[in-house]
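Minutes, project huddle
Topic: does the predicted pose make sense with adenine bound?
PN asked that the exact inputs be recorded in the minutes so nobody has to dig through chat later. Recorded below.
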Amino acid sequence: MNYDVASFQRAREGVQRIAWAERSMPVLRLIRQRFARTKPLRGLTIAACLHVTSETAVLMQTLKAGGASAVLCASNPLSTQDDVAAALVKVDAIPVFARHGEDRKTYYRHLQQAVAAKPVITMDDGADLVTLLHTSEQRAAARIWGSTEETTTGVIRLRSMEKRKLLKFPVIAVNDSATKHFFDNRYGTGQSTVDGITRATNILWAGKVAVIVGYGWCGRGVAMRAKGMGARVIVTEVDPLRALEAVMDGYEVMPIARAAGVGDVFITLTGNTSVIRREHFAAMKDGALVANSGHFNVELDLRDLKKLSRETYLARQHVRAFVLSKRRTVFVLGDGRLVNLAAAEGHPAAVMDMSFANQALAAEFVKKHHRTMDKRVHVLPTELDHQIAALKLKALGIRIDRLTPKQARYLDSWTAGT
Ligand code: ADE
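Predicted holo structure (tokens), as shared on screen:
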């Protein structure tokens, strides 16, 4: 078996951490049990480019239980949990190509190694694998039935390809399932971002001014959790609707140019490039902490910051100091990469349960329907969302009401009015 992981030394720890995650993933466990009985993915090779975490490991085991040959490479150089990668190779015999801290060249070599496994279905978190299949690995694209995409940034890239009619195969935007973005993006990013910043710095949030750059689902989640920790929250936005929502959610809203001089902690979650740049860094207070929780490490213009700095040094693990002057130092967390995965463990398993239930069902959907799917971006049927939500509620022991026949008739009729 071909693979590339850092070491097998901590494989045992990886096994334990995967088992720990699995305990909080009841929906994926149910899917795995069904997959093990019915083998809906029998004989298929699936290449996944995802964060190599204990939660992803449970997804990989699920695909394998369904009869697939699953191969995994990392979707981010800093998110790989080496113990988990080792456990997947050693215990589950699932090929993994991922090493924590790998350089760009190794990152892309790993993607190529995943493509070399000849997948018919691919899974992405950020669309790097799909992009490779439309650039240097185009020949392999002819074999692909379809792909799935985990995250907002990836879906934006895919829709840009769709608009230009470039897509060579259909893609399912898993991110767009309600049971994904309402929960993973909001509660997952909300909690794990605060967790990452706390673990990296051990700051006291109470009384801090937290500047949340971008009020999408992830920004909403982080704003909510930062507020819950006692921070005074400022939101910056470019979209008037979202800005208005932030105002009515009770946050202060202002341009980043003004927030730059006021904030203690800055967190970017826009999916866009250079949202904190030279003039903003130049205006920051001494001790300002700057982190990114958007998918790519392009949101903070670190080249600008470096140019502004006299000196940089590692202040503590995951915290780099940029000395702007004798009296002013700004600290960047996790090299500007996803702080929740670089400095913590990413989203908790309980929320990845629903995201990865969507991924597993999306793979099954592609297997069943790829012949009739257009080469565009699709979303999973709403019934699957409802099924996943119902299963999650059941696992949580929460019961809900049913419509009475009278209520169902009322909702269905158009004649009953005033
Ligand atoms: N994305 C965010 N958190 C994650 C996790 N724990 N595992 C996989 N992908 C993630």
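Observations noted during the meeting:
- The chain has a mean pLDDT of 97.
- The chain has two domains: 11-180+347-395, 187-342.
No decisions taken; revisit at the next huddle.
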